[in-house]
Amino acid sequence: MKKRQILLIFSLVLMATLGLVGFSSGNSTNSEGLNIGDMAADINLKNVNGEMVSYEDYPNANGFIVIFTCNTCPYAVASEDRIIALDAEFKPKGYPVIAINPNNPALQPDDTFELMQKKAKQKGFTFPYLYDSSNTVYAKYGAKKTPHVYLLQKTSEGNMVKYIGAIDDNVRNADLVKERFLANAVYELLEGKEVSVKETKAIGCSVKQ
Fold it and tell me: Is the pLDDT of residue 16 over 80?
């Protein structure tokens, strides 16, 4: 038993050292963008259907799964079916997915609004796929990668950041996933618990700005 406990502690320390998980109980020390416990400002971005979308459009939501993603990054493409599945799993529970493309099409031509529309139609996105035309929303959040997740919970003070990082522990291959970081965090909130793993390392392509 003691040997097993030592191995478990060693594994957790190794994962923390590698930056895969964070166990801080308070706010993170990220100097750019949002930290755990911060309030996320509302958004007002154009969806692929041409309509503007904000958090206020979801009065019955308990929170939001905000995912910065794009058309082109192989990691984002590998996550598309997972993102669709997350929306199906959690939208009925009050946590809808909202996807935001942070890339500048002048630097990444395949991330134009028109190609976003094409992507959403081809994949059958069930969630808003928003265009950050001002190229500022991603910076306010502190998103560095695609995909990069921010889990928000509605509170009396606003939409509080509860989790930041990766969808799960294998962005390359959904079949090899062992830890569903984001899903676990949502379920903890639904059960009235504090999120146990508040931050993980987002692995993907750098935001093109």
Answer: no
